[in-house]
């Protein structure tokens, strides 16, 4: 089977790192490039972190591109209180051996969508949607060439994680999210409603560490740092492992369930800025524009994640 071509748009982040590792460990996927965006930490760090992760995985051949350093129309909000000052706190970091690509991330996405056969490239969005929205604003004609956008963002039944009503990725750049959800591109959305069901319990982290290879050991250390925030916040054994759900969807969609809905992004209200208004119960006539995932077999998810990272 021909591997599925993907671009990973990301703001690493320990859970972004987990998603990148899962993708790089999976022969079903052809990672054409990784595009960094400002989000969890500023752009210089997210771009560096992407390079660090590829090297830890022994995949320094995967190019990393630097993208948007700020949201479309707002000041950047970051999340060092969750991820640490580096974005990947919990392990010893280093400068990647391979430099960033000279081409801008926006141009790389545009050129890739233009040159690859139509409908073959999936955009995996793990952070704020600034890069992808900029692509769609700059060259609207490439929207129809996208196979699918699979994104981690938003929430409905679970509310928000940066404000009572907004999830971080959408809150950072709600205008970008509005552009993407209004674009007409096929969208699969992994909201907090599903990511809060994949918890990095102590037993799961120890299973990961038991693989014994460098990426597994590094990821286990990262997760032990990362989960401290959500364990305290939610009172759970382990924290949600948000971003790898995007990659797991591409590998084994049958472990998930959800439904097609209309999703609108709040861009005006100070109280609910960045909220994803999901018409789950079909109470409006607004057209469906996303497949919204709500449930997952968490054991099946972690079996896949642990086994794949053990291959690196």
Quick structural summary:
This protein is of the alpha/beta class and 312 residues long.
Structural description of this entry:
The chain is of the alpha/beta class and 312 residues long. It has one domain: Inosine-uridine Nucleoside N-ribohydrolase, Chain A (Alpha-Beta Complex). The chain contains twelve helices and ten strands. The protein has an eight-stranded mixed β-sheet with strand order 3-2-1-4-5-6-10-7, with helices on both faces. Strands 8-9 form a two-stranded antiparallel sheet. Helix 1 (14-24) runs parallel beside helix 2, helix 1 (14-24) runs antiparallel to helix 10 and helix 4 (105-115) packs across helix 5. The relative contact order is 0.16. The mean pLDDT is 95.
Low-pLDDT runs: none
Counting DSSP H or I runs of 4 or more residues, the number of helices is: 12
Average residue pLDDT: 95
State the fourth-level CATH superfamily: Ribonucleoside hydrolase-like
Major β-sheet strand ordering:
3-2-1-4-5-6-10-7
H/E element order: EHEHEHHEHEHHEHHHHEEEEH
Oligomer category: single chain
Which of globular, elongated, flat, extended, rod-shaped describes the shape? globular
Describe how the helices and strands are arranged.
Blueprint: E1 4-10, H1 14-24, E2 29-36, H2 43-56, E3 64-66, H3 80-83, H4 105-115, E4 121-125, H5 130-138, E5 146-152, H6 168-172, H7 174-181, E6 187-190, H8 192-195, H9 202-209, H10 214-234, H11 244-251, E7 256-261, E8 263-265, E9 276-278, E10 290-296, H12 298-309
Parallel strand pairs: 1-2, 1-4, 2-3, 4-5, 5-6, 6-10
Antiparallel strand pairs: 7-10, 8-9
Helix pairs in contact: 1-2, 1-10, 1-11, 4-5, 5-7, 9-10
